[in-house]
Amino acid sequence: MADTDIMAPEAGKPTRRTRGTRRPARSAAHGHNPWLEVPYITRKVPTYDLLDEESLVRIEEAADTILAEIGIEFRDDPVTVEMFRKAGGTVTKLGDATWNIRFDRGLIRALCATAPPRFTQVARNRARSVEIGGDAMIFVPSYGSPFMLEPNGDRRYATLNDFQTLIKLAQSTPWLHHSGGTICEPTDIPVNKRHLDMVYSHVKYSDHAFLGSITAPERAADSIEMCRILFGSDVVDQNCVIMGNFNSTSPLVWDGVTTRGIRTYAEAGQGSIHLPFLLGGAVTPVTMAGSCAQSLAESMVGVALTQLTKPGAPAILAAFLSSLDLRSGSPTFGTPEPALGSLVMGQLARRINLPLRCSGNFSTSKLPDAQSMSQSVMSMMAAVQCGANFILHSAGYLDGLLSMSYEKFVLDSDLCGALHAYLKGLEVSDETLGLDALREGGPGAHMFGTQHTLRHYEHAYYDSALDDYRPWETWDEGGRGDAMSRATTRWQQTIASYEAPPLDDAIDEELLAFIAKRKESMEDAWH
Amino acid sequence: MADTDIMAPEAGKPTRRTRGTRRPARSAAHGHNPWLEVPYITRKVPTYDLLDEESLVRIEEAADTILAEIGIEFRDDPVTVEMFRKAGGTVTKLGDATWNIRFDRGLIRALCATAPPRFTQVARNRARSVEIGGDAMIFVPSYGSPFMLEPNGDRRYATLNDFQTLIKLAQSTPWLHHSGGTICEPTDIPVNKRHLDMVYSHVKYSDHAFLGSITAPERAADSIEMCRILFGSDVVDQNCVIMGNFNSTSPLVWDGVTTRGIRTYAEAGQGSIHLPFLLGGAVTPVTMAGSCAQSLAESMVGVALTQLTKPGAPAILAAFLSSLDLRSGSPTFGTPEPALGSLVMGQLARRINLPLRCSGNFSTSKLPDAQSMSQSVMSMMAAVQCGANFILHSAGYLDGLLSMSYEKFVLDSDLCGALHAYLKGLEVSDETLGLDALREGGPGAHMFGTQHTLRHYEHAYYDSALDDYRPWETWDEGGRGDAMSRATTRWQQTIASYEAPPLDDAIDEELLAFIAKRKESMEDAWH
C-alpha cells in the first residue's frame, strides 16, 4: 500500500498553519502565534557550552576507561554478545546467560561513526515529518508514568482513555512535534497486548510521528508491522517511520530484552534511543562529571549495537541525569546540578556527531504549582540550550515521572510555545533596530502608534494561551483564577473541540484486524 | 566615628556560615547548604553569548546614532546641561527648562571610560560587603512595588511594617546578598519623610549593603548623611557604602530630579544605577534589537553624568526589558523575547567594561503559582547567564512589579539558592569523575554505600528549603501541601525566629535623632 494513499497532500500546509490562518487577527484570541508554528524547530540560538576542551576530553577518556577497564554487563542475549565479540570486545562469561564485555579505548566510539548525525522520522501527515539532529529540535510528550494526578492531588492508575486523551492534547497543540510513545501506561489493558492499543491510538488520534513498543522484541516487531500497514512496506523499508526508546539497566548493564529490541528496530532500519536513566548517588556517581562519563559510555554502547546490526540505522544518544534527596533516598528532578550535566551532554553529543535526547520538563512536585514550573524551566532551559534534538518529557511530567497531569501537560506545552520564540533568537537588522520608531516622535513620545510598531506588533511577542497578563482589577473581577485552574479549562476545552485527523478506512480496518488477530493469539498477561 | 566600633570582627565568619556550622548534619533539616553560602557569588559558568561581533557592533552603532541624531532630552537641571555642553554635547534649548543634547558618535562611551569595571559596596557587617562587576554577582530583593499581594489574591497598599518584614526575610536567607532599596513603598509614611524610615530600617534590621533614596536630591543627601553617622565620614569618603537606583524617563529623557540625584550620589563618591525601564512597543521599539540599542544609549548617558561629576565614581549600566500584551496594552514580564535581550545586554556591558544590573525574577502573575515561577525562571536564567552583576528584583516580584508577595519572596530566594549551585558550574577532576564509585561494585551494583558517595553526598546537590521531594504517599499523609502553602509557613517561621543584627546603641540614637530633626523640619507631604 503506497503512502500517498493515506497522506493528504498537505506538505507545506500542515493542519496547524491552516488553523492559524482561519482564526481572526491576534487581537481576538489568546495563544495564537501562527508565525512560530513549525513541524520542527530550527535552532537559531547558539548552544550554551559549559566546559572547555580539556574537561570534555577528560570526560571522554573516563568513558573510555569505564568501557575498557570495568566493562558492560550483557544478559540473556548471546547474539548481541557474539556481535560485540566479533567487533573486538573482550568477553568474559560470568554465568549461564551473563557476560562482561570490555572494549579497547575508542572502539565503541568508532562503531558509532556510521550512525547518521541527522535523519528524518516520517509522519503519516508528511507535513509533520520531523528532522532529528544538527540544529533541528523537537518537543515530545512525557513517557512512562503509571499514574495520573488530579489537581486536588488524587492519584490513580492511568488508563487507555488517559493515554488517548494525552495523544489528543499533543495533537492539538502547535508546540509539540511528535506524539511520543508510552505517554502514560494504559494499566487497564493486559501488559502483553498494551502495545497494540498504544500504537493504534497514536495512529488513530494523531498524525504526528510516534514511538513503538520496547517491552519485548515481539512487541517491537508488532509495532513495526503496524507501520507497514499504515505506511506501506516500501516506505518502511526506505525510511525511519518509528523508533524505540530503550533504557540501559544502570550502572553498566544492558539486558537481553532491551538489546534484542534494539536489534529488532535496527534490523528494520528504524530508529532507536539509548538512554541511561541515571539517579545520582544510586546508579551513578553522586558527582555530575562521573554521571556524564557513565551516560556517554552506556549510551554509546546502545548506539554501537545498532550499527553492528545495520550500519546507518538511525540512533539517538541520550541522557537523563537526576539528583537524589540523600536524606530520604528519593530521586529529585529539575534541580540545578543535572541541568549543568545536560549542558555538558550537548557538547559531548556534538563531538561524537550524534543526535541527542536530553532532559525535559522535569519535576518532583505532586501538583502543577510554583515548584513544578520552577523545576521544569530549570531543566528545560538546559535541554534547549544544550542543543538537544529530541526532547522527550516536554509535557505532562509530575511526581518524579511517576504521574502525568493534564494540567501540567498544557502548562508545559505553553512553555514549549514560549521556547519556540526563544529559539528563534534575536534578529539584528535595520528593521529590528527600529530607529524610525524613535525618530517618529522623538524623546518623550510613546510608540504605540508609530509605523514601526504597526508593522511589527502582531509578531513581536509570544502570546501565551495560559498566562494571565491582566491588571489586578480585571483579574479580580474575573474570579482570581490561578494557572492551574486556567490549565484545567484549557485542556477540557481542547478535548471538547478535538477532531481526529483523517485516516483511510481500509487502513483503519486492516490495523484493527491485525490487532484482533494478535490479541486472539495469546492469553492476557498482567505483568 | 570609626567603622570598627560598630562592626563585629566577623570577617571570614559571616552570620550565615556560623549558623550553618551550628546546625546538625544535613540529614536533619531541609534547606541548609552551608558550602554554597557566600557574601557574593563568583560566577564559574561562562556567559551565554547570543550574538556575534557584527550584530553587537550594529547595536552599538544604533545607540551612537540615537545619541548623535535624535539626542537626549534633559529637563529642569541646567547644571547637568552645562556639564554635557562643556564635554562636547550639542545643546538645543527646547523650552524654559528643557533641552535636547546630541552627542558625537562615541563621545558618551568615551565619557564612561573612567567608571570602575568592578567595585566594592561596603556593608556595615564587613563580612557582607559585596563586589559588583566582573565575575561577581549578587542577588537583591525586588524594588518599588506599592502593593502587597496575599495568597488569596487580596491586594492592599504596602506599609512600613511590610517594608521591615521584607528586610528581615532578606536578612535571614543566605541566598540574597544585599538589602535592596524600596523593597516596597511604605505608603503609610508621608512621601517626603519615607526615605528616612526606609534607610533606618535597612540599617536597623539588616547588616547587608543597601540602596538610598532617589526621589529628590535632598532625600539622596539625607540617605548619604545617615551613612556618615553609621559608617563614619572617613569611610564614606573613601568607599562606596550606598547607591541610588535611577530611572531614565524613556524614551530618551532624563528629568532634573533624577540627574540632580545622580550628581548627589556621584559627588559623594557613592554608587548609582542607570536604568531605562523599557516597555516594548510603548516606550521603546517593539523589536528587541531596538530596545537593546536604546537601553544602552540611555544608560550610558546616566553613567557619563557620574563621570563628569566625579571621575571614578561607581556606576552600573542597567537594563530592564519587557514585552507588552498588545491586545490590552498591559506590560508583560518573564516572557522569552526580553530574556534574549538580557543576554545581549550582558554582552554589551562587557564590551564597555561596566558592571551590569539586568533582569530578575519577573512575573505578571497575581499569585505565586505555576505561571509566576515559569516566568521568573525564564527571566532569571537570562540574568545569571548574561553575567549580570547586580540582579535587582531577585525576590518577591508579582503583578508586573506592582505588588510584592511574601510567598513569592521566599520561593524566589530558594531559587536563588539553586542558582548558587548552578553558578558554581560543573567541576571535572579525577575525584568528580568518580570512577572508583563504578569500580567498587562494578556493573549492576548500586552506589549508595560506596566510599565515593560517602565522601561527596553531603555537598553533591542543592537541598531546597521549599521543594517537596517526598513520594506521593508521604506527601498525601502530610496533608498534600502546595508550594504556596509551604512558602507561607516558611516566611512566617523565618519572621518568628528573626533576630536583628547588633547595632551600636550610640549610632542607633544618633540616627534616630537625625531622623527626628529632619521630620520636624518639614510638613507631611503625601505626593
From TrEMBL, chains A, B:
Is Zinc among the key words of this record?
A: no
Ordered alphabetically, the record's keywords are: Methyltransferase, Transferase
- Region of interest: Disordered: 1-30
Cleavable signal peptide:
none
User: Keyword Transferase: yes or no?
Assistant: yes
**Where is the sequence biased in composition, kind Basic residues?**
14-25
Domain of life, source organism: Bacteria
Describe the family membership recorded for this protein in Swiss-Prot or TrEMBL. Answer: Belongs to the trimethylamine methyltransferase family.
Q: What is this protein called?
A: Methyltransferase
